Amino acid sequence: MLGNCLENVKKNVPLVYNITNYVTVNDVANALLACGASPIMSDDPEDVVEITSICKGLNINIGTLNKRSIEGMFLAGARANELGHVVLLDPVGAGASSLRTNTALELMEKVHFDVIRGNISEIKTLANGNGTTKGVDADAADAVTEENLDSMVCFVKTFAKQVGSVIAITGAIDLVSDGETCFVIRNGRPEMSKITGTGCQLSGIMTAYLTANPENKTEAAAAAVCLMGLAGEVGSGRSWCL
Amino acid sequence: MLGNCLENVKKNVPLVYNITNYVTVNDVANALLACGASPIMSDDPEDVVEITSICKGLNINIGTLNKRSIEGMFLAGARANELGHVVLLDPVGAGASSLRTNTALELMEKVHFDVIRGNISEIKTLANGNGTTKGVDADAADAVTEENLDSMVCFVKTFAKQVGSVIAITGAIDLVSDGETCFVIRNGRPEMSKITGTGCQLSGIMTAYLTANPENKTEAAAAAVCLMGLAGEVGSGRSWCL
Amino acid sequence: MLGNCLENVKKNVPLVYNITNYVTVNDVANALLACGASPIMSDDPEDVVEITSICKGLNINIGTLNKRSIEGMFLAGARANELGHVVLLDPVGAGASSLRTNTALELMEKVHFDVIRGNISEIKTLANGNGTTKGVDADAADAVTEENLDSMVCFVKTFAKQVGSVIAITGAIDLVSDGETCFVIRNGRPEMSKITGTGCQLSGIMTAYLTANPENKTEAAAAAVCLMGLAGEVGSGRSWCL
After folding, report:
1. What pLDDT shows up at residue A232?
2. Closest residue of chain C to A195, computed from CA coordinates
3. Domain residues for A103?
4. For chain B, how many structural domains are there in total?
5. What's the CATH code of the domain at A36?
6. Hey, is the C-beta of C136 within 8 angstroms of any chain B C-beta?
7. Per the confidence metrics, is the pTM higher than 0.90?
């Protein structure tokens, strides 16, 4: 399955449109190229509708919001929905400030997202309307662990069903659910939290996977999570070898 | 010639001012430092005129346009023209949206560019007033090949003469023409299209070359293209060696 | 001392809020993670007050100013002062344009900074109200050398006393003074000036050190300078070994 989803990205070379933060944007572009997709970035309200029209996938990341980019996100999301394009939300820092929490919640109201991908604190914030995200990192108290796994799986399935989106919670243990099934993924490396942007990169890659595998969105989202974890393992292994 | 042009960059350490996109900006700064130049970035209309005045080279890259940076580009371009400074245009994504196409065309109307450097689809868009740029990458149907080389050389010479700028089209085969002569450059590596920003980096480096070699702009532009291709070969070779 | 300051960063994992330029922002985030801190970036006036409230350290870097981010800097600085949080100013390019010089000077008027860190030309600009910063790099004529060391130590002590901030001047020889004592630090590598953002990274790291060592700000600032120099030596050594 993983191989198939990736093969479809490489075969289709989907154009993925990213309205994303300026912190990790270069790595998002390179991650998309590395998996076989083609990235484009833009955020001005005058540009977003047209760029959305030519891209089958839209990745909205709220990492460094401003008035202009927020307006762009709503316009792009609406256009992508009209055209039936794939749309993903990465609610970076939801729970850390009202602007982030409220923008994410309002986006969820106005735009249908195929997938919402975040850390556990961000996703809890979206489910509860408020949260305790520690800056842009998950609050350790929220972590998905072997001990609370059953209740967390229940939480993610319930939330996915409620909002009608695939929900992907990533961390040491990753959960991907569409409300019916739930993938529990245990790969990756703890070092991945010591570099910035692994979540943002995954959201970009996941959008490419969804765009190239529109018939199997839950599997595509899970496959992207697996790929990112494997990439972390390969990267970590490589640095040990040097 | 290549060596001479590079020597002049290293000797003069030109200050190169970049109004550029936030995706590849860090690599542009590092590429400029690596070739011996000194980069500065800024885009606010209140800052651009003064920064243009202290920098002998100006690199305008339309990768992530917004209203503020567009205004900055016109002000900086006008000031650079007044002062007789070198100005380069990188029309990233011209052909992919009206905002990009129209901004590039209007810049060409209001500002004299010493060099315009882009991929073949972007340059065709500027020549025809519209195009089929695939996001920020060239449309494969547009590619310069051994088969269509004669007609592409004719196209680039005609367009260079028409606009009065050196035109640099980069891709698998690179063309650099001032309307009279045309350099055809066949180096570099296909892997260069798998990382983001090689074009943006080249535009930065080319601006440094032009600034340090103002008497030989066509040769300087061609030398910068050769350097970037060689850098790709060295980088690629290195990764094979590891 | 160095070890202690770093241990406190690793133990406290301070959230460091950065209003910074889009050129080097990714490296600033990774530098903060690498030393054990947790970075967050944001610049919209609607977001900055709340983000300042949750972060014990604030790093204001004027590398790519715009009207929106300038407004954010003043709001965040005022809030951080109210809360007694650590605030650092990195006056990137002060002396290169009026917007940069005036913004830095006005920030110093309205916000109390625990530390101001810049190159010698930037700091001279702040002390004199004008300067000759070469773009974003120090003017060679300004350099701190063994020959002028006594007078430079006198300058930095006087300026530190006058503004009531720790002043950190970094370059081949680094000076850190609170007006009473002055650390003279001679480590690092000349290659560090050949990559962009080492100063910005240091400002981020220094904010983390100050936040985790609020009782010993002068020592913390000096320890951060030592760490950055050592990092340059390790990085340089590594590249020689490969």
Report:
1. 94
2. C30
3. 2-241
4. 1
5. 3.40.1190.20
6. yes
7. yes
